[in-house]
Amino acid sequence: MRRNDRRDLGLLLLRLGAGGVLAAHGAQKLFGWFGGHGIEGTGQFMESVGYAPGKASATAAGLAETGGGTLLALGLATPAAGAAAAGAMAGAAAVHAPNGFFNQGGGYEYAATLGLTAAGLAITGPGRLSVDHLLGHAVNRGWMIPAAFAATAAGTAVVVGARARRLRRAKEGEQEALFEEEYME
């Protein structure tokens, strides 16, 4: 097997693996498939972790994951697909960041891994075993990479920033007890 063949096969496997996981994860949000909670349940969760409105946030995250993952798996519009999936995973990482890095403690390890893989594929390109290649890379041009990441970064910064402000305001409204309850009796 030649070096280029190995590279293309490796990119195909990365795209199918990461894209498939992202698409399934998004389908949980959008449709309730694979043990997910659908738009209603995911919307309630999104609202509880500071993404409001919850239903719109669930829809946006679900579309970025399902759409981005599906397109990555196909190797179609790879810059936009990878950037969208990476943006969704940045939003997920923000939720899990207070729990540290490792997934077993509820950390952001999983979201970071999927996001970085999607970003890497967006930059590297899909390889020859892709729909982009079949279409002559019509939706996989070099200029599309910075454009897709700039748009995604701007959108992600606005959404994650709004969430952080919302959580900060909610925390400011809470007051810690001056005395522990056992001393109050």
From TrEMBL:
Subcellular localization: Cell membrane
Record's keyword terms, sorted: Cell membrane, Membrane, Transmembrane, Transmembrane helix
InterPro entries documented for this protein: DoxX, DoxX-like_oxidoreductase
Superkingdom of source: Bacteria
Transmembrane segments: 71-95, 107-123, 143-162
Topology with respect to the bilayer: Multi-pass membrane protein
Methyltransferase listed as a keyword: no
Family note: Belongs to the DoxX family.
Protein name as it appears in the record: DoxX family protein
Source organism (scientific name): Streptomyces tibetensis
Taxonomic lineage from the root: Bacteria, Bacillati, Actinomycetota, Actinomycetes, Kitasatosporales
